[in-house]
Write a structure and sequence with these properties.
This is Transcription antitermination protein. By secondary structure, the chain is an all-alpha fold. The chain has a single domain (3-31, 39-196), classed as Heme Oxygenase, Chain A (Up-down Bundle), CATH 1.20.910. 77% of the residues lie in helices and 0% in strands. The termini are far apart.
């Protein structure tokens, strides 16, 4: 199983969760039904900062190409957070999302690659899909375009491919399992939040 096979395996195993995380209910869950521009931006900053923090710590603990992959992803996430206009006080007080909190608990290089470089970009792609749609609906094309660029950058799997290529087959299997687990964490937060609001997290046909 090479890097491409690993990514395909994660997508297949987490297909339902990723699909639901891309639903129009996502921002309702993420913002606690506070569907304002400020709340959406704050959610984006919180997620980018959480990802950057974990990845930067892992980069310091790693070596070679894997450290480079963690460092590149951490720097990119930090830069995205800095580019998003927001209320610093409110954002600083924002509750950490479940995936960011989960990343802080992940041990083992292969597990960190799976959770931080595979799962996080896949979840970010779903998140930014809805952020873009939000600003389109707000008729704020400038913000929509900016977040389209962020979606492309945040969902970049090149660091994951580089890091996975440094692992052996067993390591890639471990990374796959860790990625699936991390996506499950993100989905469970989404589903539980909506359920508490009296909403069904599953799509209706």
């Amino acid at each position: 199983m090479d890097a491409a096979d690993t990514l395909d395996a994660v997508r297949e195993a987490s297909a339902s969760g990723l699909e639901r995380l891309g639903s129009d209910k996502l921002l309702v869950a993420v913002t606690g039904a506070d569907l304002t521009s400020d709340a959406v931006r704050e959610a984006a900053v919180t997620r980018e900062r959480g990802r950057a923090s974990a990845l930067a710590a892992w980069a310091d603990e790693s070596e070679g190409a894997i450290a480079d992959a963690f460092d590149a992803a951490a720097s990119a996430a930090s830069e995205r957070a800095d580019r998003i206009p927001r209320d610093d006080v409110t954002t600083a007080d924002a509750e950490t999302d479940a995936l960011s909190a989960h990343l802080e608990t992940v041990d083992g290089t292969a597990e960190q690659i799976g959770a931080g470089l595979v799962a996080s970009p896949l979840v970010a792609d779903r998140f930014y899909l809805q952020v873009v749609s939000f600003f389109v609906n707000e008729a704020d094309e400038g913000s929509a375009d900016a977040f389209r660029e962020m979606r492309t950058a945040a969902s970049d799997l090149d660091p994951a491919r580089d890091a996975l290529a440094e692992l052996d087959d067993e390591g890639r299997e471990t990374a796959r399992d860790a990625a699936v687990e991390a996506i499950d964490v993100a989905y469970e937060e989404y589903a539980e939040t909506l359920t508490e609001m009296g909403l069904d997290p599953k799509p209706t046909c």
